[in-house]
Amino acid sequence: MTFLDSIVPLLTLIVLEIILGIDNIIFISILADKLPVDQRDKLRYWGLGLAMVMRLGLLALIAWIMQLDKTLFTIAGIDMTGKGLILMAGGLFLIYKSTKEIYHKAELDETADEPNTTKSTFRDLLIQVLILDMVFSIDSIITAVGMVSELWIMYTAVVVTVAIMLIASKPISAFISKHPSFKILALCFLLIIGMSLVAEGLHFEIPKGYIYFSMAFAFLVDIIQMKTVRPASGK
User: GO cellular component terms (predicted)?
Assistant: First the structure.
């Protein structure tokens, strides 16, 4: 395959990796909001940087990664694989974290919105980021292997994707932090992603396009509401 022939699959894989990486950016942004302002960029950079290292390392173990699709055992007629177990564990963790954050935002007093360094340390939050990084990385690598066969394309796509995510993470995080309603929307988005991971682990595929389209529509509605409420409140 020539370099020109590799451009299309490379660009396709980069776009796909960016779409899959949106979940990661939102999760890191919400966790970073718990830290003092001077530590938030550090968590984003460390989280995304380690995600890149993890994905590059997993690419080096590509043969082992592909074995995760093999059936380990069967429960109620459902074949359980290593990938499925990892996706279910990550999905349940994401559901738990999202539900907990929504509860804190919706039920507790306003002081719960303030960064709490006694309950949320940088190390604890970084560990949570790494847990989700592992889940998203394995899913991403298996998806990449299904699309292309050249390792250099996979490596290039990972590096370019993480570079784009590093640039986009700060404005996305600032936007979510500035607008509380979008923070709830983002948490609901993560909740849906968590449920889709569990479903995928059980071999019940929910098309990602349905999920992203519904969330994009909800985001558009929130934008319209924000623009129409502001003039009314200023009267």
Answer: membrane
